[in-house]
Write a structure and sequence with these properties.
Blueprint (H helix, E strand, L loop, with lengths): L3 E5 L6 H14 L6 E5 L1 H10 L3 H9 L3 H4 L5 E5 L5 E5 L1 H9 L9 H10 L2 H9 L3 E8 L4 E6 L5 H11 L9 E3 L2 E5 L8 H6 L4 E6 L15 H30 L3 E6 L13 H17 L3 E3 L7 E2 L2
């Protein structure tokens, strides 16, 4: 009997595109998943997806703003005369954070409130009573390792905190102290937990990867420290993503596993931490239409290469 898994990578605001793909797979393709695994923005999507509340998580994503995420934002967001959005450092807020003795540039506790206000205790109980499992990845910076937090091994408050922690891209977002350790975004160690899905018994995996299948980025010189930091994080996480995908290819050849890869077809943004509700609404729609009109990149145990069908 096939064990179906949905795996969603990290990607910040690009999670809206992943949500559109997931909506098509769950509500129109009627994919009934046993396992839900995610990192960062993937972790934010999965709890409500796992209990069938697709439209609710859609409404959350397409109405998200900077204030939904940050109690103290390290960015000042502005638009130019052409309507293009850009960000620069909010030096006043950053100084305030340092004066308060905080270790990061921003405070993302509003995101925790957003999670708890939408993924309710009754949703968690429905998940626990079902046979479905949700797993999120977090980076334990104290012990220098990736950890995996499974819904069935947590209580409601802890699970909400782990989902929040999984999506905290320090130092722009909160660094969280929990269980005598410091934790941050799971993408620092595992961008796409396909290997973990296979270890948990998955034989049929839909993997939503919030990067293009080919390197389409050609960065211009950075304008400020913010640009350089984001570029460094982007480079590091991209390399982690490549390693995770290569590992999945190797495991797929060894195990009887089928993996359907859904990449984004074009570069969405160079700043995954700008949360513009109108833009994210468009990305959700684009993700849905992309899944509806395109075929995934498919790999199974018979293939030692990626093949695009359709």
């Amino acid at each position: 009997m096939a064990v179906k898994a949905l795996v969603i990578s990290g990607g910040g605001n690009k999670g809206a595109f992943a949500g559109g793909i997931a909506e098509y797979l769950i509500e129109h393709k009627k994919r009934d998943y046993d396992l839900f695994l995610g990192t960062s923005t993937g972790s934010l999507l999965l709890p409500l997806l796992s209990v069938g509340k697709v439209q609710k998580i859609r409404n959350v994503f397409i109405n998200t703003t900077q204030k939904s995420i940050f109690k103290s934002s390290p960015f000042i967001i502005s638009k130019n005369k052409y309507g293009l959005t850009s960000a620069r450092m909010n030096h006043l807020n950053i100084v305030k954070m340092f004066l308060k003795g905080k270790k990061t540039l921003g405070d993302s506790r509003n995101l925790l409130h957003l999670i708890r206000n939408n993924f309710l205790p009754e949703d968690f109980e429905a998940l626990r009573k079902s046979e479905k499992k949700v797993l999120v990845t977090v980076a334990n910076l104290t012990r220098n390792k990736v950890e995996y937090k499974l819904s069935e091994e947590c209580n409601y408050d802890d699970f909400c905190e782990w989902v929040w922690i999984s999506a905290n891209l320090a130092p722009y977002m909160s660094l969280v102290e929990k269980d005598n350790c410091e934790y941050a975004d799971g993408g620092f160690g595992n961008y796409l937990p396909i290997k973990k899905a296979i270890e948990m018994g998955a034989t049929d995996i839909d993997a939503i990867i919030l990067k293009t299948s080919e390197n389409l980025v050609n960065n211009i010189p950075g304008k400020n420290v913010l640009d350089i930091f984001l570029r460094l994080f982007g480079y590091m996480i991209n390399q982690i993503a490549v390693n995770d995908i290569e590992m999945a290819k190797i495991l797929c050849e060894k195990e009887k596993v089928r993996i359907n890869y859904y990449y984004i077809p074009y570069v969405l943004t160079d700043n995954p931490l700008i949360f513009n509700s109108a833009q994210m609404r468009n990305w959700w729609h684009d993700g849905f239409e992309y899944a509806r009109t395109s075929k995934p990149i498919i790999q199974d145990e018979r293939n030692k290469f990626f093949a695009i069908f359709g």
